[in-house]
What does this fold into?
Amino acid sequence: MGATERRLLLEAFDSNWIAPLGPQVDAFEAECAAYLEVEDAAALSSGTAAIHLAFLLLHIGPGDRVYAPSFTFCASVNPILYVGATPILIDSDPDTWGMDPNLLAEALEQDSRRGTLPKAVLLVHIYGQASKLEEISMLCEKYGVTLIEDAAEALGTRHRGKHVGTTGYLGLFSFNGNKIITTSGGGLLVSNDKALVAQARHLASQARIPGAGYEHDALGYNYRLSNLLAAVGRGQLQGIEERVAARRANFEDYRARLGDLPGISFLQEPESDRGTHWLSVMQVQPEVFGATPEDIRLALEKENIESRPLWMPMHLQPVFREAKMLGGKVCEELFRTGLCLPSGSALRAEDRERVAAVVRSSAGLLG
It folds into this structure.
């Protein structure tokens, strides 16, 4: 948080416009749309709300199937169950850790022959790295399946010069407190279909018909963003490129300090992409490094440094264990070997050096 966020928040507070709607929300939506180079954007209470609305807007419900990656946070996949649809989980591509386009191609080809194509493909750009968007979008176009992009972790990520979250029919972002910019809690739904975004706003406002009365023409939701929080988001958005640069610097510094260690590796970014490295993630081969990711995490914790495991794949979660899973070895290996290092935009070089020193000292702890 900085002076700009404070000034805009106080302006909103002093205006006495505290409700979930208002001029700050309108301005934030316009500024987000301009930054992302899309036609329209709806500011919402969370990224999860944005995903839920996306499925509602596409009339996805019981009997429908949605392809989604197993390697993601549960908020990506939970809304499939909210609407009564069936998730089909797909393993990760080792190059990007996003959905494997080869497995998707095989599944869509089989579905096409059987006449059982899914209602949508939900693509997640994990940890700020673009998935193989061009390949997956071409597959969706080939088979006439709607592509939804979950870019909750990837605001500012570009694939071949274009913002992720803007190629699919609908794109979704999160402004949760841990994201690269935050509104404390919040989300965004974007599309080049302005009528669709307008419908999202309508459903997110309890589907209330404009006017003095309280008439509702559909089942609505309380999903709009607060005017106060939108003011914070506007200030945060002004510094998005600086925050991206800071996150990328974290990653490059960690790679320089730790990349020479046997058994330690980092995801290689394609030359055509500009990832944000929302979180700096390393992989640890315990049999080579001499310590497990959990050994390292506990060593960091002793020094009051927080680190975390990678997302547990959805097919390993109790709530999704009955879901159909295509593949699984890649994301299971990522979960087994990965560790998220401290990644805040305000980290200093001495902070990263302290982290790296603990990681280095952890070698040989195994056994």
Summary: Residues 240-258 form the longest helix (19 residues).
